[in-house]
User: Fold this.
Amino acid sequence: MIPLLVCCTVAILAWSLVGARLQRWHFSGPVVMVLSGIAIGFAFQDSIETGLNTQLAEHIVELILALLLFVDATEVRGGFFAGARGPVLRLLLIALPVSIVLAVVVGVPLLGTSVFAVLAIACIVLPIDFAPAAELLRDPRLPRRTRHALAVESGYNDGIFSPIFAFALIVLGLSETNGGPLGALEEAIPAAGYAVLVGGIIGGAAGLGARLGARRGWATPSGLRIAMVLVPVVTYACALPLHGNGFVAAFIAGLVYKPARLGRRGFRKNIPHAELSLADDLGVLSSLVMWFVFGAVASLILVTPVEWSWILFALLALTLLRIVPVLLAFLGSGSTLREQAALGLLGPRGTSSIVFGLLAFNAMRDDDANIALYVLIVVVLGSVVLHSLFGRRLAGALAAPDPAGISARRS
Assistant:
């Protein structure tokens, strides 16, 4: 795996030097990393699967996810709902659970595996992540409320999917010992409780410490940046000995850290970029590594037999299994059909799906692991084409006519 890592480093270095130029041609960092990973993956196919299925790889992926969840939770702007409470609640409390149910109902016959294996796969392919198509959140042709709702949903849905994903993996692990769903609930509920407790305590204490240190001049700017990186790592590490869900703990820590750091009105403020920049940059770097690894793994399915039922499920997950729940969630909301279509179609899949997929590949039995990996690759590659390469055209088609350019002036 060392040659593969060297190639990954070289690809990221090259992108970092010409990334701005490539973005003008709508080639974002994730797209470049995927293409690089696919090209390099053909040369190292024999070692890719072996390298992924190791404890070291699993722990690295877990830490990356903990960091990303923490950063997502701290970067939600304008309060918990960024001024879009109604749409966000409809997306998270109605559309999200409906999409999971529909994915399981459709997935069991198409994928030919158990309910809980499909549940785990649904948690892999349904979370939205704007890493490969961040320009969509800045597109002035889309209503600001729509963009804010999508941004907040992408920040929160990982934290919601994480415990469901963990529960599904626990059930699959206990199925061999006849523990079943009840046994999994006995593990999952205390794990979630400990995660909330650990995340709340560490996030709150770290936030208050950063606030006090900054106010009294005890902490340097670089120290505050380092603290932002270490909080999710410490939180994750402390949650595991208590059998808590480390991902949920890191997400809760991010939610609590922000108001604790900024004070009573911190819900509507933003953490200074100077403090968040290191965690943000590490998150971007980790994300690029995951996209390169994904590209290398994607090269595997190009030489395997086509499974049409798996591809059909993946395409449904990317389209109808999100669009239909969103339309149902917004019945009676008063929003236009264009807005609802934008919320349903502009949901790219990205780093979260890749990380969940790699974790599932290590945790699930071989047949289910191969299905999960196959579906993951088709969904994310489809999202790269739909949202990264053609995202701006799609946004233009879904944007309401605005001949006076009012939305562009207001955004």
